UniProtKB/TrEMBL annotation, chains A, B:
Database matches in PANTHER family: BETA-ALA-HIS DIPEPTIDASE, SUCCINYL-DIAMINOPIMELATE DESUCCINYLASE
Taxonomic classification: Bacteria, Pseudomonadati, Bacteroidota, Bacteroidia, Bacteroidales
Spans through the membrane: none
Keywords: Hydrolase, Metal-binding, Protease
Protein name as annotated: Peptidase M20 dimerisation domain-containing protein
GO terms (BP aspect): proteolysis
Record flagged with keyword Signal: no
Originating organism: Phocaeicola massiliensis B84634 = Timone 84634 = DSM 17679 = JCM 13223
InterPro entries documented for this protein: Cyt/Met_Dipeptidase, Peptidase_M20, Peptidase_M20_dimer
GO MF, any single term: peptidase activity
Domain Peptidase M20 dimerisation: residue ranges: 191-351
SUPFAM superfamilies: Zn-dependent exopeptidases
Alphabetized Pfam families for the sequence: M20_dimer, Peptidase_M20
Length: 450, 450
C-alpha cells in the first residue's frame, strides 16, 4: 500500500496512540511526575513493539529510565539508531492554553497539546514510518531506538548511559526528529549546531560591604570592575577579544554564505517580533550568519550589591556574572574555556580578586551534506514537501549530538519537522496534521533511499 | 562646681538615665517597635525637662513623633538648635553580642549597648552639658532641642516637619553630636560632607528572554550593553566622564591638602582591614582626599538574567543597575542628576532602550572654620582632649544637614565624639566612659565660648 493511503487508513489509530502518550504528563523537571516518567516509557515500549520492533525494553539510568527497542534485519546491513525523548517541559502558564495541555485536541487541522511536537509528535513520525516499512517488507537495514526521559532537563544521565552501553547502541548513523524547519513551505535540514562554553565569574573587592560614602572613590567597587572586565570581552566590531579565540574558527565557505543569503529572511519582521530598533553583531556578517555560523558572547546573568526596592548606598564586597560563548564547529570547548579563564585573569586588575569557574560546555556539530544518510534524508524531504530542503546551520547547541559523535563515533542526521509556530516549550504547543503526515512520508522515503 | 567634679558626683545618675533610654528598643526599621518609639520620645521629654528645659513636648509627624524642648534666656541672645535622634538600628546578628544589646552594661571602661554611641549616648552628652550650664547659671543663649525618631531609616518625615515648623526651629546655628573623630587621641571636627545623587538604570533589549543559541551574536544582550555603558562612566584616570560633571567642583585648597596630609594614615593597615591588595581612585589625589573631598561613582547594585544555581543559557530581556555618585560641596545634586541622565541617554546605543530614573539626592555640606560656633566647638575639643581638633571632611552624606541649611538657612556644627571602634550599626556597639565624660566637658566649653 502506498504510504499516503496507509496514513489515511490508519490515522485514527496513530492519533489514539499519540494521544495515549500525551495524556501522561511526563514532565521531567517536576519530581511529582516521577511515576509518569515510567508510565510513559512503558507506553512507548508497547507502541514500539506494536510498530514492528523485535524487542523493546525499559533500561534504568541514574535518572529516569530509557526505552530501547530494535529490529534486526541482517548482521551485514547498516544500522540506524533513532534517538528521541519522551519527557516534556512543564505546561505553565496554564491560563494561556486554549485547551488543556495534557488533553490533546484536534482543532483547525492541528494537534494541540504539550508534546504534540516536542518530542512525542516528532518521535511518533519516526515510529509510524518505521511501522510502514516493516509491515510492507521494505526495511533493508537494522533499526534501533533509544528514547530518553531527561532531555528537557539537560540529559544529565545520558552521557554515562551511552558510555556504558556502547555495544548496544552501536550503529552507522543516528536519526533525530527534534529540530525545526525554516517554514512549512521552506523545508530544511539542520547541518550545524553551535557548541557552548559557560563560566561563572566572581569578583571580590573588600572583605565586606563598605559604606560608599566613607570608602567610595578610594576603594575599587567590584561591580564597577566586573562591568569593566566584561565590557572588554567584545570589541567595537563585535568580535570577541580573547586571544586565540578565533584560531580554530573556520571561515564560512563562500558557497554556504550564498545559500544563507538565499534563505528568505525579513530583518524588519525579525526586529519587530522581538521589539528592537536595531540589531548588533559581528561586523562583516549577516544576521543569519551571526546567529548560526559565528561565535557569540552573552552575559546570561549578573548580580551584586543591593537589588531590592528603592535606593541603598553600598560599596559591595562581591559581584557575580554567568557568561557563555556559543562556539562554532572545530572550536574545542575545553580549549576555549581555558583561553577565557586565562584572559579574564590576565585583564583582572590587582585591586580585586577574580575567580572564573568553568561550568559546562559542549562541542559544536557539523553534518556533512555528503553523508549518505544526509542525502537519503534530503530525498525524503524533497518527496514529502515537493522541494529540495536547504541545509542550514542553527545557532543553538544540542550537547547530546556531540556526545554521540564523541562517545560512539557516529554522525547524526537532524531530520526535524518542527515549525516556529508550533510553540514548543510554550502554551498552545501544536503540530499541523499536514506536517505530521509529510514527516512520516519523508522518513519512509529516507528508509527507502538509505 | 567645676564640670569634672559635677560629672563625678552625678555620673551614676547619668548612667541610669542613659540606660533607661537604651532599654527601650526604639528600632525605627521594625514596625513591631512602634510603641517603643513613642515610649523613647516620652522618656527624652522627661529627661530634657529634668535637665533644665522650660518646656518639652512630643510632636507628631508623618512617621514617628519628634521631641521638641527649649530653654529661653533672652530674645536678644542667639539660639542654638541641638539635633539628635532617639531611634536605633536593629541589633542583629544577636549571637555576636557579648552582652544583650538592650541591656546596657559597663565593662572595661566602656558602655556596651545598641545606641550607646549612636545616638543615645552622644545625645546624652549634649543634654548633660546643657544641664550643667543651666544649673550653674552659665547659659547665655537660648537652646532648642529637636530629637527625631527616623534617622536610621533616612529621616523620611523630617523634611516636611522642618518646612512646617520653621518658626519653632528658628535658630542661629545647629549643633549635632552624631559623627566621629579620627581617634581618641586625634580629636577632629567634621567640616565637610559629600552630597549624593542616586539613579536606577533599566536596559531593555528584546521584549522577552531569548534563546541565546538562536539569537546570540545577532541581537544585542542588555546585560552586555549595561556593562559597556557603566564601564564608560569612569575613565582610565579614575575620573567621571559625564560632561560638565566637574564644573562646580572646587579644587581642594592647598592648605586643606596639607592638613589632610598630616592626618596619621597607614595605607597598608587600611588595605589590610578590608583585605585588598591595591587601592584605586582618581589620579593625582591621595586616598584620604579621594574618599572625602572628591566625587565618586559606585554601582551599588546590579541584576539581570539568570542568577540561580548552576548554569542557564539565556539572552535576557532586561538588565538593571542602581548607581550613585558622592558629590562634593558646590555640586548641585539636581544638576548632576540631570547631567547623568542626559549622558547615559547619549551613550545608550540604538539597539536597546535605556531608562534612567533619579532616585534621591542631597547636597554636600561645608562648615566654614571661621564660623563662631565652629570656633567655640574647637575650643571645647581643645579643652577636653588637650589638643586643637583637626578640621576634616568626611566622605559620607547626612542629607538632613543640607536640608537644615536649605530650609532653615542655618549652618550646622558637627560636634561628634564617636570612634570607629564604637561599632555603631554593628554588634557590640559601645562608647568609652572617658570619651563620654570628655564629650560633656567639650560641649560645656562650647556653651561658655559661643
Amino acid at each position: 500500500m502506498e504510504i499516503k493511503q496507509y496514513i489515511k487508513e490508519n490515522e485514527a489509530r496513530f492519533m489514539e496512540e499519540l494521544f495515549s502518550l500525551i495524556r501522561i504528563p511526563s514532565i521531567s523537571a517536576l519530581p511529582e511526575h516521577k511515576d509518569d516518567m515510567l508510565a510513559c516509557a512503558l507506553r512507548w515500549k508497547e507502541l514500539l513493539l506494536e510498530a514492528g520492533a523485535d524487542e523493546a525494553m525499559i533500561m534504568p539510568s541514574q535518572g529516569n529510565p530509557l526505552v530501547f527497542a530494535q529490529k534486526h534485519i541482517s548482521d551485514e546491513a547498516p544500522t540506524i539508531l533513532i534517538y528521541a525523548h519522551y519527557d516534556v517541559m512543564p505546561a505553565e502558564p496554564l491560563e494561556l492554553w486554549k485547551s488543556q495541555p495534557f488533553e490533546p485536541e484536534i482543532r483547525d487541522g492541528h494537534i494541540w497539546a504539550r508534546g504534540a511536537d516536542d518530542d512525542k509528535g516528532q518521535a511518533m513520525i519516526q515510529v509510524k514510518a518505521f511501522e510502514y516499512v516493516v509491515k510492507h517488507g521494505l526495511l533493508k537495514h537494522n533499526v534501533k531506538f533509544i528514547f530518553e526521559g531527561e532531555e528537557e532537563i539537560g540529559s544529565p544521565s545520558l552521557n554515562a548511559f551511552i558510555k556504558e552501553h556502547k555495544e548496544l547502541l552501536k550503529a552507522d548513523v543516528i536519526l533525530v526528529s527534534d529540530t525545526s524547519m525554516l517554514g512549512a513551505d521552506l523545508p530544511s535540514l539542520t547541518t550545524g549546531l553551535r557548541g557552548l562554553a559557560y563560566w561563572e565569574i566572581e569578583v571580590t573587592g573588600p572583605n565586606r560591604d563598605l559604606h560608599s560614602g566613607h570608602f567610595g572613590g578610594a576603594v575599587a567597587n567590584p561591580i564597577n570592575t566586573l562591568c569593566s572586565i566584561l565590557a572588554k570581552v567584545i570589541d567595537e566590531d563585535g568580535r570577541i577579544t580573547v586571544p586565540h579565540f578565533y584560531d580554530d574558527v573556520e571561515e564560512v565557505p563562500a558557497a554556504e554564505r550564498e545559500m544563507i543569503a538565499q534563505i528568505p529572511f525579513d530583518e524588519q519582521k525579525y526586529m519587530a517580533a522581538i521589539n528592537v530598533k536595531a540589531l548588533k553583531g559581528e561586523k562583516g556578517y549577516s544576521t543569519l550568519e551571526r546567529n548560526s555560523c559565528r561565535p557569540s558572547f552573552d552575559i546570561c546573568g549578573i548580580w551584586g550589591g543591593y537589588t531590592g526596592e528603592g535606593s541603598k548606598t553600598v560599596l559591595p564586597s562581591k559581584a557575580y556574572a554567568k557568561v557563555s560563548c556559543r562556539l562554532v564547529p572545530h572550536q574545542n570547548h575545553e580549549k576555549i574555556s581555558k583561553l577565557f579563564v586565562d584572559y579574564i585573569n590576565a585583564v583582572a586588575p590587582d585591586y580585586v580578586k577574580v575567580k572564573v569557574t568553568p561550568m559546562h560546555g559542549g562541542e559544536g556539530y557539523v553534518c556533512p551534506i555528503t553523508l549518505p544518510a544526509y542525502q537519503a534524508a534530503e530525498k525524503g524531504f524533497a518527496k514529502a514537501f515537493g522541494k529540495k530542503p536547504l541545509a542550514v546551520r542553527r545557532g543553538g547547541s544540542i550537547p547530546i549530538i556531540s556526545d554521540f559523535e564523541q562517545i560512539l563515533g557516529i554522525k547524526t542526521v537532524l531530520m526535524g519537522f518542527g515549525l516556529e509556530s508550533n510553540a514548543i516549550h510554550s502554551p498552545n504547543e501544536n503540530i499541523p496534521l499536514d506536517i505530521f503526515r509529510k514527516g512520516i512520508e519523508a522518513v519512509v522515503e529516507f528508509h527507502l533511499n538509505y
